[in-house]
UniProtKB/TrEMBL annotation, chain A:
One of its GO terms (cellular component) is GPI-anchor transamidase complex. PANTHER family: GLYCOSYLPHOSPHATIDYLINOSITOL ANCHOR ATTACHMENT 1 PROTEIN (PTHR13304:SF0). It holds the Pfam family Gaa1. GO terms for biological process: attachment of GPI anchor to protein. This is Glycosylphosphatidylinositol anchor attachment 1 protein.
Automatic annotation (TrEMBL), chain B:
Residues 1-23 form the signal peptide. The keyword Aminoacyl-tRNA synthetase does not apply. Pfam families: Gpi16. Keywords: Membrane, Signal, Transmembrane, Transmembrane helix. This is GPI transamidase component PIG-T. Coiled coil: none annotated. The lineage of its organism: Eukaryota, Viridiplantae, Streptophyta, Embryophyta, Tracheophyta. It comes from Stephania yunnanensis. The chain crosses the membrane at residues 552-573, 627-645. GO terms for biological process: attachment of GPI anchor to protein. InterPro entries: PIG-T. GO terms for cellular component: GPI-anchor transamidase complex.
């Protein structure tokens, strides 16, 4: 870049010199006006983010083989009677025996055997994942250790039934999961088991099955995810050694069919009183992975157009009532209307209410993806590249009303039958439709090609500003030198590249040391976890303390960032180069993160990009106007506070729940959740965001 | 005289041939029905054509299909078996060690093996030609077995034979009527009369399992056989669930009553006569030994009703012509001769009086195979053997401690699943065994990329007390070239079934009749000593699959890059820097072109200033103004166009 700049500067003094190539000219132009362009880009990025609900497209079933709703449902009132029979049996069992742990499993086994299915009982024991040094990402998020000295009763027991497709070859299967809490079974759990059973018994009779059906009645006393994940783990990696399982428990190691599975997870809740029977779809799996959009499409299509259910996806309700959002929506509505007047074909306007709804849904979609924690037990399937979603149905009336319940079961059963039939048609695995998308409504989505624009616009200023910062001091000096001493441009280039091009080395060393420190910080929780009798606040304090100590030690070893005194003649240049290197490293980090988890990178970029761009040493506020200095300092201070992850979390928590309940330990708890679920967000926060913040602090406090 | 003599000769020849024909070529048709424990019915059609050797009999045939005869002669086939199967044979419920299940339970899709009587170096070429011929003959994609990656030559695990055996399987082949019709064409009566006439296509393909099989045994070229000639055996095995009117009938004990069925209720037709060319034409109904003993337990406290009652609890709609008992076990075979029922259609049916639960005779081990691991990188294959109740019956409890049972496993794995044979592990009853202690022989031929599949032949020696044995072997998943992916690549890749053989146990039943078992081909087939075979499941391996729109993207990007490259190259080649500089200098000297002059005048007018002299060293603001003007003009035109005509 140094040569390009030298070239760009030289023509003014020597008109005979040939003009540089246009692309170089554009580059130099952008770099020299980087402040303006970065402002435009950031503003455009934020605007693009707010435009996403407007740009959302309607979903469509992409895979032709699915053909949802093309067959008449076979699920009838007879099947709902079956469901009611099982529900009644389960509730009787609960009444008669009080606690119904293994009895329910046995009862389910009996019912399944009646349907000519192969029945297995899967015993598992859940142990929570601790922070381990080696196995972050490498292991699934829960580990199961069968201990020999435990008796069978202390395990959770999943009941698994398999229907073999009459003419299928057993290579593929559809999994239906119905979680229930075996220690305290509720009416809704029983109902979900009953509904699953009625569908299962229907499927054991039909002749169109091409894939095997696996019904997993998951014992969710240790959490829904844990039981499903335990089953999946034993399914994929069964153990043949005796020492791993206790003798009196039968384990399903004879999983004769393995291969591809597509899955739905069913859950009925006795929900709030809704105006309509409602179906909620949960899809987010770990680290922002989503199931194929077609799976959501067929569920949505069948629920809305066949069964008349109201379909919901999660929303951020706090956003719904925001006045500013409504205003933004009204502006977009107005623009849309105006555009429609100009050309009737430009139909991109949506109403303000739709916009607010879409934004709330989109925000929750981004939030759950960014968090990296699955929203239900379908996350366990996604870890094995199996597409899965959780369906949760809440009826309009109380579930104790028999007539309403039958109607509700009928609709739910027909929906599930339709979905299973549609998936059953599939020849290949889900691959046609989108995997990278955000939902802005159950029937609207924003694909990766569109939402990436906002992120790219946000991140483009970073390399540009880095280049301009790096070339800025160089340019000044080299031009000064050219004017004063050396009229020969070639010599100027040589000298500048000879002495200046290694300037960044010290800055790079500082950045490297800080990132090394961040790596250490990310491992400290392992030490903290070894402490006896720890409270979250104490852990947090220890973590902060150890981080601080390690930073000091590292500086003591590698030298402090302010120890570089060679360029004392231009103190400006030193922080500028440090900032340039920090910004380029941050842009690389954000880019990498956007590949792993787009939503995290997007939210991170909103915080990080302004912080990186605006950071300026407090002592060198410059000789601009007073107002400008003041605003720069204020914005720097504000960004420094909200750019620090714990502070940001506490602020958000305090804003949402009131500042009374906020304690320092909250961040520890949150971080613990993140690493328990192996969320990449933890890595992002500690390895990318934190060092960037620390370097910003360095620049702010630059002497 | 001159006329009469040839006529006489011709008549003599014809007569002689006639005698020979009926002494030589034979065709027989038989159907065996058997109720299955899980309320289904097995129907097994068996057609057999034989012809004497060519050297005695000549090339012309009356009954024997010409296509098969030519096939045998062209490719010098000693033995060939081709099967088309849909569905999975349920070894647990439908039996595993009787002759029907061990020779007619086949893996899904197409399986073909053949032994040739050609020199060893010609075997591969002959196999290739054979697959193409069969592909044409049976309207199936058997020709995909011609590449060396698709077939293998098992040394000893599949059959005890010389090196001229070739084995190949296509697990994904869809089987339908287009394969059945050519198969039926090989029968002398087609499906126009005889037993084949009840083969109603919807009834067959509605079933839970159907497998059509063709087996050729010829002794045309060798001399070691006992019966010279060519033997063509065609079987069709189907498992159907009879329509049940009494589904809800449940007895107090919770047992379900078996459904009543008849030939008409299963196939929708009755047997209306024999194929006149058939030497024998009979229907058998088999009751297994376990079922018979259950029936005997039911007792005799019931009075015979309208039908023909042979056992308490079972009623036949037609009286059998003969009842044959098995020599070793208590299995019973009822024979119905179709010829004797020629005057009215034969509709054999079974009615059940009591709910009866029995289980089939299973193979000593139930073999299952499954994949372990996830992801696109590696995994492992596990073959699990679980002891069944049958083992106790065969071995007896007292001998269990010191006896051993041999199990032979033959497995072919495509090259893109790279098996590491050194990772073979054997678990017996939950313990990891020292491999040489359990494995008697292991012979592997590692796969070669794009050349040959990996073949694994293992002979295990298991103690009879083994409850479960698991063999695992690890593999890496390979990468394929873009043109090597099959259609529907996202479906995954099939690993053909492994064959598990129990050489110690013979699947044979000896039915002793007064006269029929000597002539009945199906019963003599049952008496042959065939080892018990079972096939494992087909596996589906998901491999890393590219986005197939990628070539398009790559082509677009490459074209763009090339266009840019050639554009700039052309620019560099065309431009003469010295010339341009000279021109620039000329321009600077005052010779501006007409249009820029006018424009600059115009712009200076618009600015309300006098035009500066043209010696100005930097024409760039003027130029950019011009550019901006042009752009604005164009944009205005475009907007106007769009607004009024768009």
């Amino acid at each position: 870049m140094a040569t390009a700049d030298a070239n760009a500067v030289v023509p003014s003094s020597q008109p005979s010199n040939p003009k540089p190539r246009p692309i170089v000219r554009i580059g130099t132009f952008l770099i020299s006006h980087s402040a303006l362009f970065s402002l435009i880009c950031c503003a455009a990025g934020i605007l693009a983010l707010f435009l996403l609900p407007v740009l959302a497209k309607n979903t469509y079933v992409s895979e032709n083989a699915l053909m949802p709703g093309s067959a008449n449902p076979m699920f009838s009132n007879h099947d709902t009677m079956e469901a009611n029979r099982l529900v009644k049996d389960i509730m009787d069992l609960k009444l008669s025996s009080g606690i119904a742990g293994i009895e329910i499993s046995n009862l389910l086994g009996k019912y399944m055997t009646e349907r000519d299915a192969d029945v297995y009982h899967h015993n598992f024991h859940v142990q929570k994942n601790q922070f381990h040094l080696g196995n972050f990402f490498s292991d699934s998020s829960y580990s199961w250790h069968m201990k020999e000295n435990r008796s069978c009763a202390q395990y959770g027991i999943n009941t698994v039934a398999i229907i073999r497709a009459p003419r299928g070859d057993g290579k593929e299967a559809i999994v239906l999961v119905s979680p229930y809490n075996s220690t305290n079974i509720r009416q809704s759990d029983a109902l979900s088991l009953g509904l699953s059973y009625s569908i299962f018994s229907l499927l054991s009779r039909v002749n169109w099955l091409a894939k095997d059906i696996i019904w997993l009645a998951a014992d969710s006393q240790y959490g829904e995810y844990a039981s499903v994940a335990a089953w999946l783990k034993d399914y994929h990696n069964p153990s043949f050694l005796d020492s791993d399982k206790s003798d009196d428990c039968t384990c399903p190691e004879s999983n004769a069919l393995l291969g591809r599975k597509d899955s739905q997870i069913l859950q009925v809740v006795d929900g709030k009183e809704e105006t309509k029977d409602t179906l909620s779809i949960y899809a987010e799996a770990s680290n922002g992975q989503m199931p194929n959009l077609d799976l959501i499409n067929i569920v949505n299509y069948l629920a809305v157009h066949r069964q008349g259910l109201h379909v919901k996806v999660a929303k951020l309700y706090s956003v719904l009532n925001a006045a500013w959002l409504r205003t933004v929506g009204q502006i977009f509505e107005f623009i849309g209307k105006t555009a429609k007047i100009v050309n009737p074909q430009w139909g991109f306007g949506i109403s303000a209410a739709d916009y607010v709804e879409g934004t709330a849904t989109l925000a929750s979609s981004i939030y759950y993806q960014a968090l990296g924690i699955p929203t239900g037990s379908h996350g366990a399937f996604r870890d094995y590249q199996i597409d899965a979603i959780t369906l949760e149905m809440s009826p309009r009336f109380s579930l104790y009303n028999e007539v309403r319940r039958s109607d509700f079961l009928l609709r739910g059963g027909r929906l599930l039958e339709g979905v299973i039939r549609s998936v059953n048609n599939l020849l290949e695995k889900f691959h046609q439709s989108f995997f990278l998308y955000l939902l802005s409504a159950p029937s609207k989505f924003v694909s990766v090609g569109i939402y990436m624009i906002a992120f790219m616009l946000l991140i483009i200023p970073l390399p540009m500003v880095a280049a301009s910062l790096y070339s800025g001091p160089n340019k000044r000096e080299s031009s000064a030198r050219t004017n004063n001493e050396n009229p020969d441009p070639a010599a100027a280039i040589v000298t500048s590249s000879g002495s200046k091009s290694w300037k960044w080395l010290h800055a790079a060393k500082v950045v490297f040391v800080v990132h090394l420190w961040a790596g250490l910080v990310s491992l400290i929780p392992y030490l903290v976890n070894q402490l006896p009798e720890r409270t979250p606040t104490a852990c947090m304090l220890v973590w902060v303390l150890l981080s601080f100590v390690s930073l000091i030690i590292l500086y003591w070893i590698a030298g402090s960032p302010y120890s570089y005194k060679i360029s004392h003649q231009s103190p400006n240049m030193e922080w500028a180069i440090l900032k340039a290197v920090m910004i380029s490293v941050a842009s690389i980090g954000l880019g990498l993160m956007s590949i792993i988890n787009y939503a995290t990178a997007q939210i991170g970029a909103i915080f990080m990009v302004p912080m990186c761009l605006l950071v300026h040493p407090l002592k060198h506020a410059g000789n601009a106007g007073k107002l400008r200095v003041l605003s720069l300092t204020t914005s720097n201070m504000v960004l420094a506070v909200i750019g620090f992850p714990p502070a940001a979390l506490l602020l958000v928590k305090g804003w949402l729940e009131g500042f009374d309940g906020v304690s320092l330990g909250d961040f520890w708890i949150w971080a613990e959740t993140l690493w328990t679920w192996n969320s990449a967000t933890y890595l992002y926060l500690v390895l990318i965001h934190l060092p960037c913040w620390v370097l910003c602090m360095h620049i702010l406090l630059h002497p | 005289m001159g006329i009469i003599q040839p006529v006489l000769i011709v008549a003599l020849v014809v007569l002689g041939c006639f005698n020979l024909c009926y002494g030589g070529e034979e065709f027989s048709e038989e159907l065996l029905l058997r109720p299955l424990p899980d309320r289904k019915v097995l129907a097994h059609f068996h057609f057999e054509s034989t012809t004497p050797p060519t050297k005695d009999y000549g090339h012309h045939h009356h009954l024997f299909p010409k296509a098969i005869y030519q096939l045998v002669h062209k490719f010098r086939i000693r033995e060939l078996e081709l099967s088309f199967t849909q569905g999975r044979w349920n070894y647990e419920r439908w039996g595993g060690s009787d002759p029907i299940s061990s020779s007619n339970a086949k893996p899904p899709g197409v399986e073909l093996w053949a032994i040739f009587d050609v020199p060893l170096d010609q075997v591969d070429a002959t196999w290739k030609n054979l697959t193409h011929t069969l592909s044409g003959l049976f309207c199936a994609s058997i020709n995909f077995l011609d590449s060396t990656t698709a077939y293998s030559s098992p040394a000893w695990a599949f059959q005890q034979s010389s090196g001229s055996i070739r084995y190949g399987a296509l697990p994904r082949e869809a089987v339908c009527t287009e394969n059945l019709t050519p198969w039926l064409k090989l029968l002398p009566c087609r499906d126009k009369s005889g037993l084949a006439s009840i083969l109603d296509r919807p009834a067959i393909y509605r079933g839970f399992y159907h497998s059509q099989r063709l087996r050729i045994t010829s002794n045309e070229f060798g001399s070691e056989g006992i019966e010279p000639g060519i033997d063509l055996e065609q079987t069709l095995t189907i498992v159907v669930q009879p329509d049940d009117q009494r589904t809800s009938t449940s007895y107090s004990s919770g047992k379900m009553l078996q459904p009543d069925w008849s030939i008409r209720s299963i196939f929708g037709r009755k047997i209306s006569g024999t194929c006149v060319l058939a030497r024998s034409s009979s229907v058998f109904l088999e009751l297994e030994s376990t079922l018979v003993s259950e029936l005997n337990k039911v007792g005799v406290d019931n009075a015979a009703s309208d039908g023909e009652q042979v056992y308490p609890g079972v009623e036949l709609s037609v009286a059998p012509d003969q009842v044959i008992k098995e020599r070793k076990s208590s299995s019973v075979l009822f024979e119905f001769s179709v010829k004797k029922h020629d005057y009215k259609p034969l509709d054999i049916g079974v009615k059940w009086k009591y709910p009866i639960v029995w289980s089939c005779v299973q193979a000593p081990f139930q073999a299952n195979r499954f994949l372990m691991g996830s992801g696109n990188e590696r995994g492992s294959i596990a073959i699990s053997l679980r002891a069944t109740n049958h083992q106790r019956i065969i071995v007896g409890d007292e001998f269990r401690d010191n006896c051993e049972m041999r199990v032979v496993i033959f497995q072919v794995v495509p090259w893109y699943v790279k098996i590491y044979f050194h990772t073979v592990q054997v678990f017996l009853d939950g313990r990891l065994e020292h491999t040489p202690a359990v494995i008697e022989i292991i012979q592997v031929s590692p796969s070669e990329d794009r050349v040959s599949p990996g073949v694994m032949e293992i002979a295990l020696r298991l103690p009879c007390s083994t409850v479960s044995a698991v063999i695992t072997v690890n593999f890496d998943k390979g990468f394929l070239h873009i043109d090597e992916y099959p259609p529907d690549a996202n479906q995954g890749y099939d690993i053909p079934s492994a064959v598990v053989r129990f050489p110690d146990i013979q699947a044979s039943t000896y039915y002793l009749g007064e006269n029929s078992s000597q002539n009945s081909p199906i019963l003599s087939k049952f008496q042959e000593n065939n080892p018990v075979l079972s096939y494992t499941e087909v596996l589906l391996v998901p491999l890393a699959t590219p986005d197939f729109s990628m070539p398009y993207n790559v082509i677009t990007i490459t074209c763009t890059v090339f266009a840019l490259y050639f554009g700039s190259l052309l620019n560099v080649l065309r431009r003469r820097v010295g010339e341009e500089e000279r021109l620039l200098k000329q321009k600077a000297a005052g010779k501006t072109a007409l249009l820029p002059l006018i424009l600059s005048k115009l712009s200076s007018k618009l600015r309300g200033r006098s035009r500066e002299p043209s010696e100005s060293p930097s024409p760039s603001p003027l130029l950019s103004n011009k550019l901006i003007m042009k752009v604005i003009l164009l944009a205005g035109l475009a907007v106007a166009w769009h607004f009024y005509f768009g």
